[in-house]
Specification:
The protein has nine helices and no strands. With about 190 residues, the protein is mainly α. The protein is elongated and about 75 Å long.
């Protein structure tokens, strides 16, 4: 039994490291403490079968990988999942730009006006969608980028939309908002 415990411990540790994850990040994904992950990786305790199944799903390997002395990881399933998530994200953002283009064309044809600012409003909308999908599928480290783009592009959109009115002070709102984003993303 000790042999399998140590084999599983080594394989969990190798999987985590090969996926560039800290014990804390893995613990966060599994809803455990980093101390529990540390005990698993040392072989002091073993995760339950349910957690082993979660680990297999998370890393895209079979259960046989976890109990093998010399495992060969299978990464195709994980890469396909990631590729699908990227494609779905890009499709969602493309839909925003398609809607913006349709509004621009329709306004040009029907009212003979140019609503070019619709494309400026599409940037914060795209950043918002990217942030939502990143929260669902992505990594926490990218949240600061998507939220920063959202804040500053939203403020820029307001500024450009109301350009005749001198509202440049609106950008001062971005400073505390940016500070909040940075602090929020630093929460563990």
């Amino acid at each position: 039994m000790e042999d399998y415990r140590q084999i599983i411990a080594n394989n969990i540790c190798n999987l985590r490291k090969s996926n560039n994850m800290t014990q804390f990040e893995l613990a966060e994904k599994l809803h455990y403490s980093d101390k529990a992950i540390s005990r698993w990786e040392r072989g002091d305790t073993m995760p339950s079968v349910e957690v082993l199944c979660e680990l297999c799903e998370l890393f895209g390997v079979d259960m046989s990988y976890l109990v093998s002395k010399d495992p060969t990881p299978i990464k195709t399933k994980d890469a396909t999942k990631m590729g699908n998530k990227v494609v779905i994200s890009l499709l969602a953002i493309s839909l925003i730009w398609l809607i913006a283009t349709c509004i621009y064309v329709y306004s040009g044809i029907s009212t003979n006006t140019s609503l070019w600012t619709i494309f400026i409003w599409a940037v914060p909308a795209s950043a918002l969608v990217a942030d939502i999908l990143n929260v669902i599928w992505g990594e926490r480290k990218y949240s600061i980028i998507t939220r920063t783009v959202f804040i500053w592009s939203l403020l820029t959109s307001f500024y450009v939309q109301f350009l005749p009115i001198n509202i440049w002070l609106i950008f001062l709102l971005g400073v505390p908002m940016q500070a909040c984003v940075i602090l929020w993303c630093k929460l563990k």
